[in-house]
Input
Amino acid sequence: MNEYLYPIVFGVIAGTIGRMLMLRTDYRQYPTYLHGKVIHVALGFIAAALGAVAVPAILEMEFTAVTFLTVAATQFREVRNMERNTLTEIDGFELVPRGKTYIEGIAISFESRNYLVIFTGFVSTLFYILWNVYAAIVGAIISLLIAKFLQSGSTIKDIVEIEHHPVHFDGAGLYVDNIYIMNIGLQERQEEIRKYGMGFVLKPKNMNSITTIANLGQRQAILHDISISLGVIRDSGTPALTPLIKRDLDDGRIGIFILPQVRDVERAKKIIGAVPVLENAIRMPSQSKVHNKEAN
Amino acid sequence: MEIEKAILAVITLNESRISGGAPIFICEKTEELEQMAANLEAITDGIAHKLSDEIFIIVKH
Output
């Protein structure tokens, strides 16, 4: 038996466990239960093996062997493509689509999690070989904690204040607070919207969040998440009943108009607050040198 | 460039203020106008928008 066998096995197991911990199937139901998960656990296993095997390769002075990590990078970029394609394909059949930004966010996280798994496998195996199995366990736990920390981004409630405002009509115009949403011509539709519609206003806490929540992808993600969690009153062929988010050009607040099946204000606020802030929507004007020079 | 929005139909009580390319439906009463708009909305999968009390348009978004 090879001296590296146990360290490698340990690294592979630690990495695979890490991937399993990072695979959450929550209200989003993505990755889909069972088969979608199997794919990702299997890829996580491969990633963990790559990370674990890299250590003995380096110790044996087989530096060329490390180049296979580049193959891994290509492979996992492919994972991102795969996720993006699948989600884009099925997005057309959602009553309230996720939107491209949300999809890209999901795809990115699938790719990056595989790299975190490689890292876990690498650290665990390295610690095992350098010291002993206990050090390896500590190393694995630390890298899992790092992975867990990197996995969770901020949510909407961190960057805005959420207020409930009933929807109202001014003539044919539908409004949430003072934000114009759309023109609804038919009396009958207006009745439906008065009955089922709910309005919320998100008030950005600072300059950064104004730009972030103005992002169309971020807005679509909010609508998608609410519609999943609270249900949505609409069907194909009823474009008048479409949840919408519009922006107040004056101060950057956004008005959310939704048609949930569960009309519970507190729950809706919680759900809006828990929507992830999409990495691709985040802007930091406060980090700009010019901006700061003018502001001071 | 692809045209994303289009007026599919115009429904009106006042014939004199309408002309142009979209199909025009002329009604006599407000109830008839609303009924016509509701039907056309359902059939065309568009949205009925109210421009004034006597003009509705159906728009595909």
